[in-house]
Amino acid sequence: MSPTQTTLVQVLPLAKDLDENKVTPGVLGFIVFAVIGAAVWMLMKSMNKHMNRVDFEEQPAEGESSAKSAGASADDSASAEAPAEAAASAPPKRKG
Q1: What backbone torsions phi and psi does residue 60 show, to the nearest 5 degrees?
Q2: 63, 69 Cβ separation under 8 angstroms
Q3: Residue scoring higher pLDDT (23 or 29)
Q4: SS3 helix, strand, coil % of the chain, rounded to 5?
Q5: d(CA 90, CA 65)
Q6: How crowded is residue 37: how many other Cβ atoms within 10 Å of its Cβ?
Q7: DSSP secondary structure letters along 14-55
Q8: What's the pLDDT tens digit per position in 29-68?
Q9: CA distance 81 to 66
C-alpha cells in the first residue's frame, strides 16, 4: 500500500464520526471575517479623515431671502414663483 492509501484508510473512519448536520466556518472563516472587518474599519477611518478635510460653507441664494420675507400670500403668485425658487436653491456650479 502507498502512503496515500494508508492515510485515507485511517482518516475515512474519522470523517464518518463527524455530525453532517453541524457545519462550522472554522479558522479560515474567522480569518476572512477578521480581514473584512479590518478593511471596513480602515475604510471608515480614511473616509472620516477625508470628510474632515472638506471645508464647505453654504451661502444663501440671492432670491431665497426675498421669497421668504414676502411669503406666499396669493396662491397664483406662489405657484408662479415655485420654479424660480427651485432654481435659486440649486447649489452654484463649480468652475474648473
Answers
A1: -65, 145
A2: no
A3: 29
A4: 70, 0, 30
A5: 14
A6: 10
A7: HHHHS-TT----HHHHHHHHHHHHHHHHHHHHHHHHHHHH--
A8: 999 999 999 999 999 999 999 999 988 888 887 776 655 5
A9: 11
